[in-house]
Amino acid sequence: MSFQYYLELLGTFVFAISGALAITGKDKDWVGATFTGFITAIGGGTLRDILLDRHPLVWISDMAVVYTIVAGIVCVYFFSKTLGRLSKTLLLFDTLGISLFTIVGTEVALHHGVRGEIAVVMGMFSAVMGGVIRDTLTQETPVILQRGVYASACFIGAVIYLILRYFDLDRNLNFVISISSIIIIRLLSVRYEWAVPGFDRKFMRKEVD
Amino acid sequence: MSFQYYLELLGTFVFAISGALAITGKDKDWVGATFTGFITAIGGGTLRDILLDRHPLVWISDMAVVYTIVAGIVCVYFFSKTLGRLSKTLLLFDTLGISLFTIVGTEVALHHGVRGEIAVVMGMFSAVMGGVIRDTLTQETPVILQRGVYASACFIGAVIYLILRYFDLDRNLNFVISISSIIIIRLLSVRYEWAVPGFDRKFMRKEVD
Amino acid sequence: MSFQYYLELLGTFVFAISGALAITGKDKDWVGATFTGFITAIGGGTLRDILLDRHPLVWISDMAVVYTIVAGIVCVYFFSKTLGRLSKTLLLFDTLGISLFTIVGTEVALHHGVRGEIAVVMGMFSAVMGGVIRDTLTQETPVILQRGVYASACFIGAVIYLILRYFDLDRNLNFVISISSIIIIRLLSVRYEWAVPGFDRKFMRKEVD
Predict the structure, then answer these.
(1) Contact, C158 vs C133, CB < 8 A?
(2) Quick check: C32 and A141 CB within 8 A?
(3) Strand runs (DSSP E) across chain C, as ranges?
(4) Does residue B140 contact residue B125 with C-beta atoms inside 8 Å?
(5) What distance in Å separates residue C195's CA from the closest CA in chain B?
(6) Scanning every residue of chain C, which has its alpha carbon at the shortest distance from the alpha carbon of B48?
(7) Residues 6 or more apart from B126 whose CB is under 8 A from it?
(8) Tell me, what DSSP letter sits at residue A114?
(9) Which of A199, B6, B171, C155 has the most crowded CB, counting CB atoms within 10 A?
(10) Measured between CA atoms, how close is B205 to chain A, in angstroms?
(11) pLDDT tens readout for residues C93-146
């Protein structure tokens, strides 16, 4: 079992936690928490593999993935007091999840034979689509559509990974560097309220009838 | 044509009805009703087959499925007066749909060669994801995230099916028993307001800023 | 490269524009605009190809598609002042997109070997599902569920395409006629407020508790 495999399991674990946290405090039950945790954890990677026609899906052939998700959800239930304030905890686990999945997803896509540009897109999809599905199901505005540095941190991390790979850096070291860069960018951006430039240059909302 | 085939058609029929009912009384037109009925009827099974890489999809290769869906939608239009109060009718058809699709979905997944645990997940996905898509499109909270016994009834039914199958019970008899058990659990749970244990143990909503 | 290829690229371009326009004026950033433009542009065609098991997906193997989408999004940013009032502009680009994608999607499905009825469904899915995903992400009621002539214009255009194809009309001429018919029907329907018959015959909303 490779380093990448354990990183993917860790990403699955923290995303299951972020999914279960997302419905915590919303008067939901164990089924809701399990469903949201499961969908958040497998959503991005599953979408990536379906787009790439990569079968069988990891969680269908490898039961460790399913048990990891269950473990994440149970952790939220039992350690919720220890986990501290909800919004900060959710941010932390979500950040860990997107950083791991971006780089693992980029690597998987490259290994599948697609071009670098598409691999970056696939890495970002792996990272953010689980959260997009989670937010859509819980009727929140998807994080990717909110202001702030989120998908762009994934983008930068994936590009760093590609560049270091081009220069033949050791693969595991490259994983560590590019994953860390996403975590650092994301957390600093929240702390210092960085933002990506707005898209509205001339249209004003009042123009819309 | 097997017993399973007719159960799947019946499930498709009642789910098309549940989809068309879901937008009834919401000032929608025939296109909206057809779209919602169609998506609800094929959503769960299609997702299951895409996840399992099972092609061609049933409704693409078998026109009977498409005509069954159209029949269900037309029925809602013409018999809507006879169908009685909307919420109870929707509950009945949705319950029939999830019970049929859970067991057919579990069986299809087992036949495809996956493990029992994954087959149960696939059975539940077949059953609930059509409704999840229906609710997302009509901007309702997905039923699976509401309190009450819904996906858990499917879960119990799928496990009953697996156990009886392990003891080599006649397949059609097993279908009847496990499907009935889902219907009974679901309807009793609504009548007596059974609920799955809540997930919030310590987090309070006020903790969230 | 065929006429159909350029029509598909043009459809991708205008759908990317419609996606980026959909979040214009909503305080979003470049990432949000790019994501929405991308998902809207590839959503319908990707869903069609996944349902038909047609791999690799166009945008994964052909970088021209990705660059076309980026061009569309950049155009919205720079020409937004010239584009005029938002609602009318969005209508125009969306109409162009659905007309092109309906016919290209129908043709692709027929070429893949499915029956005429399914090809029509696939054409409509190609056309409307990008917009359905766009509207779901931006938490709007999907256009297909709103009153008016939308998916039904696609339906009529796809049937016209099938009929002319049956009579062996020149393929490119057929494209022009059937695409134009969708554009004309859609724009006239908005101008004269045509509507598809309502679905609610007897149920009243007050019946619902």
Answers:
(1) no
(2) no
(3) none
(4) no
(5) 8
(6) C51
(7) B44, B45, B47, B48, B101, B102, B104, B105, B106, B108
(8) -
(9) A199
(10) 5
(11) 889 999 999 999 999 999 999 999 999 999 999 999 999 998 888 888 888 888
